[in-house]
Amino acid sequence: MDRAEAGLNAANQVRRLAVVGVGLMGGSFALAAKRAGVESVVGFDLDAEALNAARALGVIDEAAASPAEAAAGADVVLLGTPVSAIPALAELVCAANPAPHVVTDIGSTKTAIIAGLSDRAAERFVGGHPMCGAETSGVRFARADLYEGASYFLTPSARVRPMVYERLHGLVADIGARPVRIEPDAHDQIMARVSHVPHVLANVLMNQVGSYSAGGRRALHSVGPSFKDLTRVAGANPRMWRDIFVENREALISSLEAVQEELDEFCRQLRQEDLEGVVENIGEAQAYRRQLLELEDLEPENLFRVVARIPDQPGVLGEVTGALAEASINVEDLTLHHFNRETGGDLVLYISGDGAAGSAAALLSARGYPTFISSPRASGE
Amino acid sequence: MDRAEAGLNAANQVRRLAVVGVGLMGGSFALAAKRAGVESVVGFDLDAEALNAARALGVIDEAAASPAEAAAGADVVLLGTPVSAIPALAELVCAANPAPHVVTDIGSTKTAIIAGLSDRAAERFVGGHPMCGAETSGVRFARADLYEGASYFLTPSARVRPMVYERLHGLVADIGARPVRIEPDAHDQIMARVSHVPHVLANVLMNQVGSYSAGGRRALHSVGPSFKDLTRVAGANPRMWRDIFVENREALISSLEAVQEELDEFCRQLRQEDLEGVVENIGEAQAYRRQLLELEDLEPENLFRVVARIPDQPGVLGEVTGALAEASINVEDLTLHHFNRETGGDLVLYISGDGAAGSAAALLSARGYPTFISSPRASGE
């Protein structure tokens, strides 16, 4: 169905959109909104080059000289800036004349933003957090379909006017996302656990291993696939993540304390050689991971891990995955563990079904790549 | 160079190899040893089916009825069994008549195994730990080149005869691996940090998120790429990992305590809103991750993250990577974040060079897959 023809009640109500901070996320929101029938988009960005690019690319129709100028007379203002700038910007754009009807953001924490808002801003502001994209990419990658199918948290506070929420909800649906209403505090607690704690643990693990040596050997020189998976996000954008961690510090601290308690309990089990306790702890993780795979429509009991050693050359990955595709073998998940230019790396494929996994291994093996299969639940590494 | 023709001093000294536990690792060791000139391999496995398969596949030349029978008269005995079985098996095979010259294992912890050995076993035993393969895969995937280029830790104790170590060192080099000598305790301390702690953290994170709900929503329903990367090994083989954790509990506990201390310090920084401390913590992780990438011959400053939303269909991955290969674009690292059958997933590619990353994004975009680029150091998610 052409989205421009779908019942666009909300977008039809939104004639003018202002985007403050035109990166990948804000720019894609603008393009999607225009596709959904929004008549004009005005943009502002502190980075004049980004603003010009947005204008030149047709992502926005007009460039404003200030956030307030962009917001004046807008039906919806989207703040696509870092979290720390949002409270002040929300006040600024709500003071525009005429004041905008709806103000929203795309930051990854919500409670702290709302807490200090004046009544004028609070009655217009509904926090948003789309589960797609990357805040740090540029507007040149903006695309109208970025939000297609993505969950999009909306966190109305008790102070917001109901009509404001409904309008934003409609617009979010019109750009192709799936709006999910949740309390700001519940949002922040969940994000602390699913996103912020993982980043903290990745950093801590990276620091622990990076600084450790024994027997004249650095631990960093002996890392394997599990370490690389766990630290892929380590050290990501220090200033942006500082803001996120500090903005969400209450939920993050309580989440980290819960992690600490489980670690305490696990160390106690180890000290007491409580073998059953240790197995239960791992078994619990196994059961939850099974639930996660099932949410992804995968059958964990049926999922096999195929590991192939491949050289570090441009054609190999394409050859391998092309051959799998020709044999109609679907890859559910994959990850590459690069060693170095000389040795290449291990390509780890997750494939459903004993038969398909066996065929994949045979096929890779026949091409001369050392390959083996294991059940992911039996992953040894 | 044909390995069978390379100067095979060690393998020539090893005429008879015994493999107790013929899985992927033991079986591949056998094949590699035969290729290197070892005359005969005798095998034993508690699993009669695996033992028959090893014989039928030509991985071993003879099947023995017991570990002692396999070991009698062998130059080298490889114990390819779970860690917990190794001390007793080491005694058993050293009591064979005639006693084997060298006994080694492939378990992932070393100190606890050595501690209780009798003098007769201790003077013959050198612990080994190859950094490749998966202990739980079957013998049918055994291949002579599994160990090619892999680091292979050797952990001689003070009690072992020097000649025993030299012989094993030579054999490990002959099968194509790179022997790395390290003290048993240093090995266990390093493995605790680079492998066992990551598994514990993956389990704890999985349990914390699996059990958490807020605002009527399960946290598990809101996980993103970072969580999936961090929990890919969660719940792996509870019995095998229980053994590893418990065998290495001293090093593991002290490593987890160091993690706890850093988490305490990080929480203190959050409570005090010590912005500089938080940035330093992340910046330290960034510096260590840079070192890790450099070990892999990658230039972190030059490494871009290209994210493409692709559907869950057999041909797509092959099409995408095939197109990148045709354009001579090399993929340094990749990971797939599967959402579900309907939405597909995000393919995350790491590509060196602004130009190559831009070309990759343009190419994927042109094929209709929503694509954007970010610097991996700026990874937002």
Notable features of this structure?
homodimer, 381 residues, alpha/beta, Rossmann fold, Alpha-Beta Plaits, 4-stranded antiparallel beta sheet, 15 helices, 46% helix
Protein architecture, described:
- The structure is a homodimer of 381-residue chains.
- The first copy, chain A, is of the alpha/beta class and 381 residues long.
- The first copy, chain A, folds into 3 domains: 9-182, 3-Layer(aba) Sandwich (Rossmann fold); 187-273, 6-phosphogluconate dehydrogenase C-terminal fold (Orthogonal Bundle), CATH 1.10.3660.10; 300-378, Alpha-Beta Plaits (2-Layer Sandwich).
- Chain A is built from 15 helices and 14 strands.
- In chain A, strands 3-2-1-4-5-6-7-8 form an 8-stranded mixed beta sheet, sandwiched between helices. In chain A, strands 12-13-11-14 form a 4-stranded antiparallel beta sheet.
- In chain A, strand 12 and strand 13 (344-352) form a beta hairpin.
- In chain A, helix 9 packs across helix 12.
- The longest helix of chain A is centred in the middle third of the chain and has 27 residues, at 184-210.
- Residues 1-8 of chain A have low confidence and may be disordered.
- The interface between A and B is large, with 155 and 155 residues.
What is the secondary structure topology, with strand pairs?
The structure is a homodimer of 381-residue chains.
Chain A: H1 9-13, E1 16-20, H2 24-35, E2 40-44, H3 48-56, E3 62-63, H4 67-71, E4 76-79, H5 86-94, E5 102-105, H6 111-115, H7 119-122, E6 125-130, E7 151-156, H8 162-174, E8 178-181, H9 184-210, E9 213-214, E10 217-218, H10 225-230, H11 238-247, H12 249-271, H13 275-295, E11 303-310, H14 314-326, E12 333-340, E13 344-352, H15 354-366, E14 371-374
Parallel strand pairs in A: 1-2, 1-4, 2-3, 4-5, 5-6, 7-8
Antiparallel strand pairs in A: 6-7, 9-10, 11-13, 11-14, 12-13
Helix pairs in contact in A: 9-12
